[in-house]
Amino acid sequence: MNVLLIGSGGREHALAWKLAQSKELEKLYIAPGNPGTGQCGENIPIGGGETEQLLEFAQEKDVGLVVVGPEDPLAAGVVDAFEAGGIKAFGPSAEAAKLEADKAFAKQLMRSSSISTAEGRVFDRFSDAKAYIASRDEPVVVKAAGLAKGKGVFVCDDPADGILAAEKIMCDNIFGEAGDRIIVEDKLLGEEASILAFVDGRNIYIMESSQDHKPIGDGDTGPNTGGMGAYSPAPVVTEELMNQITREILVPVVDGMNRSGVPYKGILYAGIMVTAGGPRVLEFNVRFGDPETQPILIRLKSDLLEVCLAVCDGTLEDVTLEWDPRPAVCVVMASGGYPGDYAKGKKITGLEEAEEIEDVIVFHAGTKSENGDVVTNGGRVVGVTALGDGIADAKAAAYKAVERIKFDGAYCRRDIADKAIQKCKT
Ligand code: AMP
Ligand code: GLY
């Protein structure tokens, strides 16, 4: 089967790497891809937003399945367009993608399905939001309701900061229309975990747990980023907790979507805060996480293409998910200055040497080819991912590989997986 993968980040390199191992695969196309995905298939110069061109390409090349990486094309209806064109597409419809693209919709669904989340209110007018935030003593979290490239959330420790955040989103329009509506919710305390599942409309197949590292600095300091590293499994998610998350969160979401006439298929990603009172939902995403996908997929033994097809066909019960029991760690190397301004076009060396280390894969994210070199082309540049017999071994292997990769201004956190290592000791 020919497969078209949409996207160009580290997540898509991991997806391409895994899809390329499928015995069902004939040819893999990636639109637009990066130099890493180019090692797994053929990159084609069509952006994820160019639905008509993508469909035309897929029809011409006899593509049997489209796999969509990022949220924007999903929210814009790329799956609906492919299905209308007679091509199977892995991911939710635009209507179902509202679970991520419209946080007010997600909050409403959680409320009507009795799913634990932070108490929150939706505001369409700044003056109302301001009055509400001013009336509160506790820290608040202010979120743009629409898609804001993962940057739409402000965790504010006092009301003045909360009002400032609401003003930036609603009056200064820093996220455009995505900020016409905001959610103001209580700040939750605890440790975060990412729970991803394959959903075929009825069946839910949970993947191994993982944990992201959002802030730029060691010890979770500084501004939030797209994610500076991840590991899988996350020891904070015990078997008992995973069962509770399944029972009290994932099943009610899928049932709730069915009840409202919007069946859910694709990836359901629940961002969870493990609080003293149990798991609470921070957000839902409708696609694989980035960088969580890198350590998750390096551990997946099953054929990803078969699983994706089973999701599209509603036959997940026919496949099994098998996992490498060894933990995995992904360390993101970023351009100096990220998540603020940063330079591009810096030559990257040592990529091959890094992969000479056993069980290490370097997933490309913000890279491009230039005159025979690979150069930086984004904030998050590569995700250096390693398996190890234990989490500390996986961390050591990942950082050993990081040492071999060089580019001007390269930055990475030094404490990826430390929380897990600490937990495994106690
Ligand atoms: P999101 O983009 O919705 O994943 O939010 C980004 C980050 O903001 C999350 O990973 C959390 O670290 C933080 N966050 C979101 N909502 C809350 C909340 N209610 N309480 C505490 N932190 C939150
Ligand atoms: N790693 C967070 C996300 O993919 O949204």
Look at the structure and name the CATH superfamily of the largest domain. ATP-grasp fold, B domain
How would you characterize the largest beta sheet? Answer: 5 strands, parallel
Query: Within the CATH hierarchy, at the fold level, what is the topology of the largest domain?
Result: D-amino Acid Aminotransferase, Chain A, domain 1
| Parts with pLDDT < 50 across at least 5 consecutive residues | none
Beta percentage is: 25-35%
> How many H/I helical runs?
14
Question: Would you count the extended β strands for me?
Answer: 22
Query: Quick check: average pLDDT?
Result: 96
CATH architecture level-2 label of the largest domain: 2-Layer Sandwich
Write the layout of secondary structure elements.
Blueprint: E1 2-7, H1 10-19, E2 27-32, E3 42-43, H2 51-60, E4 63-68, H3 71-75, H4 78-84, E5 88-90, H5 98-101, H6 103-112, E6 120-123, H7 126-134, E7 140-144, E8 153-156, H8 159-170, E9 182-186, E10 191-200, E11 204-206, E12 211-212, E13 215-217, E14 221-224, E15 229-232, H9 239-259, E16 265-275, E17 278-285, H10 293-299, H11 304-313, E18 328-334, H12 351-355, E19 360-364, E20 367-370, E21 373-376, E22 380-387, H13 391-404, H14 418-425
Parallel strand pairs: 1-2, 1-4, 2-3, 4-5
Antiparallel strand pairs: 6-9, 7-8, 7-9, 10-11, 10-16, 12-15, 13-14, 15-18, 16-17, 18-22, 19-22, 20-21
Helix pairs in contact: 1-10, 7-8
Residues 118, 141, 150, 153, 155, 185, 187-188, 192, 214, 224, 271, 282-283 line the site of adenosine monophosphate.
